[in-house]
Amino acid sequence: MKALHEIDLDFAHVKLYDTYVISSIKEGVSLKKRQLNELFEIFNLYYETTPFVSIANREFDYSIDPNLLKTKSHPSILGIAVVCYHSHSRAMAQFEKKFYPAPFEIFENLKDAISWSHRLINENKKAGL
Questions:
Q1: Phi, psi angles (nearest 5°) of residue 12
Q2: Does residue 126 fall inside a structural domain?
Q3: What is the DSSP string of the chain?
């Protein structure tokens, strides 16, 4: 499926679809509140009242303050999927998962992450959320 919009930021490349976002954070970035707020501005523009899933395509090594995961969340995000290609990025995602209070799953490929996002969206539609 082709992205509806693609946005390049100084720290990430973001692809926007109907019900999910795929973000690829650039190598060596330390994701802080400022960058998260930039992403949230994009989410507000495209998904203000539309539930969606955030998919982190972890192609490169980067870090995020895990405290942001428990204190900062966009109200339209139903869950987070992290696609990991290396054991060290998987270990980091497993650590981060402990901090996120909503659905957070780890995958080995984008196809499985996208499938999970569709299931999560459909479950929430059936539940009337």
A1: -160, 160
A2: no
A3: ---SEEEE-SSEEEEE-SSEEEEEEPTT-EE-HHHHHHHHHHHHHHHTTS-EEEEEEE-S--EE-HHHHHH---TTEEEEEEEESSHHHHHHHHHHHTT-SS-EEEESSHHHHHHHHHHHHHHHHHTT-
The pTM of the full predicted model, rounded to 2 decimals, is 0.94
Number of domains in the chain: 1
Tokens of 40: 């949230």
In a domain, 33, yes or no: yes
Closest CA to 100 of 67, 53, 62, 125: 67
* CA contacts within 13 A on the Cβ side of 127: 9
Residue 108 has pLDDT above 90, yes or no: yes
d(Cα 73, Cα 92) in Å, to the nearest integer? 19
